[in-house]
Structure formats: structure tokens, C-alpha cells
Amino acid sequence: MKYLIKCTGFIGDNLFASSIAKKLHEQDTDAEVDYIITLPQPLLLFKQNPYIRNVYTHDIVDINEYDKVYVMPYVDQSKPATTQFQEVVGIKNPSLEFDVYTIPEYDEAAKNQLEEIRRPGTQLVAWLAGWKDRAYATTLEMYWKKVGGPHRDIDRIIVSLEKEFTMVPVGLPCGVPQTTTTAMDPHAYAFLASVIKSCDWMIGAEGGVTNLSCAVGTKTIITTCFIEQVYGRNGHVKQIPLPQMGPAVYYPNGGHTHLPPFISDDEITEEIKRVINNNLSYRYSW
Q1: Where along the chain do its domains lie?
Q2: In this structure, is the dihedral angle defined by the CA atoms of residues 210, 213, 217 and 221, taken in order, positive or negative?
Q3: According to a count of CB atoms within 10 Å of the terminal CB, is the N or C end of the chain lower?
């Protein structure tokens, strides 16, 4: 059987959909799975996936060669995106993970570069360069009134963490969308994946880069203020008791942490230190 999976949404949604290929091969050993992705950044990573035959960054004129063509829906945050997508194509036993396969040469180059900057005796901690865009210092009282808090002082948090860890900024800076022409570089994105894979930890907000992080096996810590403010019980866009988003959802045994949303910047800093120094993991819930 020949399958064509047409992705929707942003880079992270494409990565979630990549989980379908392995599941189809588990059900049909002769499956041939092709993809059309919405953005070119993950192109090389998709090509590394042993369960994917071809990947395209544009519509295919003739799709008659495929036995099945599936268009992915937009994500419903009340359910894990991976299982949601797998159910669309009829996977009988859906699973949460969406492993990303990196390029070995890039892994080696990234590892060598990072070891050159690692301070002796410190752990390498990648941090999301655009973290501030998805980080809000909202109190519980403000939340129930639907009053958004100010952006967190991420610079101050990073300065404090730099005293104990070797901090590595990754991803696009604040205000730069992934649809920007300069951001659409598959080689840069593949190398980003290798850099994150070579770090001991990743910290930031829920989004494409932290989801990439858990998929390459790096222990990831996220702030959840953005999730709660947008999709939580009193969210601005949706009201969901426990949004199914973030690394600890897709890899519940992967050592990932979802911090509580209504804590101060100082508490976030100390909690990140505590989690990393004691190799802890937990998922915040109400």
C-alpha cells in the first residue's frame, strides 16, 4: 500500500504527524509512506526517518499513484497530537512518541562545538531564544479574571542560571516567526536538532523547539504559563481542564518537567536549578 500524508500547521505539527509512518509499517510491513510538509525546515530530518519513503515541500500534481491520501486536521489541544493524527489514518494502537532522526555528521559536529564552550564541571543547558514570547508572569488571581500578566524577565532568569550551567541559546529570537524566509533553512534546522540532542537539558516554553527537544531525547523543562493562559481551564482561546501539550505528554517517562504556571521568575529559576541538579522530573497538574 502506498500512503500520502499531507501535513497542516507549523513545524511541530509536521513532526507530530511523522509518527504515522512507523505505525503504518507496524500494521503493514509493505507500506510505502510519503509526506507533504508545510514548511521546509524539517525536510532533512524527515529524510532521515527510515519509515518515510519520500518527502515533499509542495503539492504533488498527480496523487493517483497512492492507495490512501490523508490530510491532517488542525490540532485539538485536548488530545495528544500524535495519537490524534494516527487515529485519522486508522492506526489501531496509537502511541504518543514521535521520534526524530538526526544526521550523524551534524551530531558529531554539534558535539565537538559544544564541548569547546562547556565550562568545566557544568551541564550544557539549551534555552529557547524566543522564550519570552511565550512566558507570562500571571498570578492565579489574574488568571481567573482573564487578565494577562507581563512577559517574564527571561534575561534575568538566564543570567542567574549561567552561574551554574553552560547556557546555549537555540531557535529563533523573539519576534521572528518560523515562516520568515531566512528561517526556512533545512540544514540549519537539522543542525539545531543535533545541537539540542548534544545538550544535557533544554529549557523554554511549549512549542516547536521544545517538542523537537523531547523527540531527540534531551530532558526538557518547560514553563506552562502560556499553555494555561491560552488553552487552560480559563484560557483565552479554549477552556480545557488539562491541555495535552508538551514533552511530558509525548514522553511521560522521558525525564521531562512541566513547571507550575503561576509562580514568580525567581521561583522558576530556583525550580530549574533544583530539577537539573537533582535530575528530577514532574508534570504540573491542577
Answers
A1: 2-88, 104-277
A2: negative
A3: C
The 10s digit of each residue's pLDDT in 170-202 is: 999 998 889 898 889 999 999 999 999 999 999
The per-residue DSSP string of the chain comes to -EEEEE--SSHHHHHHHTHHHHHHHHH-TT-EEEEE-SSSTTHHHHHH-TT--EEESS--S--TT-SEEEEPPPP-TTS-HHHHHHHHTT-SS--S----PPPHHHHHHHHHHHHHHPPTT--EEEEETTGGGG-B---HHHHHTT-PPPBP-HHHHHHHHTTTSEEEEESPPTT--TTSGGG--HHHHHHHHHHHHHSSEEEEESSHHHHHHHHTT-EEEEE-HHHHHHHSTT-SS---SS---SHHHH-TTS--EE--SS--HHHHHHHHHHHHHTT---B---
The whole-angstrom separation of Cα 130 and Cα 150 is 15
Grid cell locating 196:
539540542
Query: In CATH, what is the architecture of 104-277?
Result: 3-Layer(aba) Sandwich (3.40)
pTM > 0.85:
yes
Q: What's the grid cell of residue 271?
A: 525550580
Beta-carbon count within 10 A of 238 CB: 13
48 class by beta-carbon count within 10 Å (0-12 exposed, 13-18 middle, 19+ buried): middle
**Longest alpha-carbon distance in the chain:** 59
For 210-265, the pLDDT digits (tens) are: 999 999 999 999 999 999 999 999 999 999 999 999 999 999 999 999 999 999 99
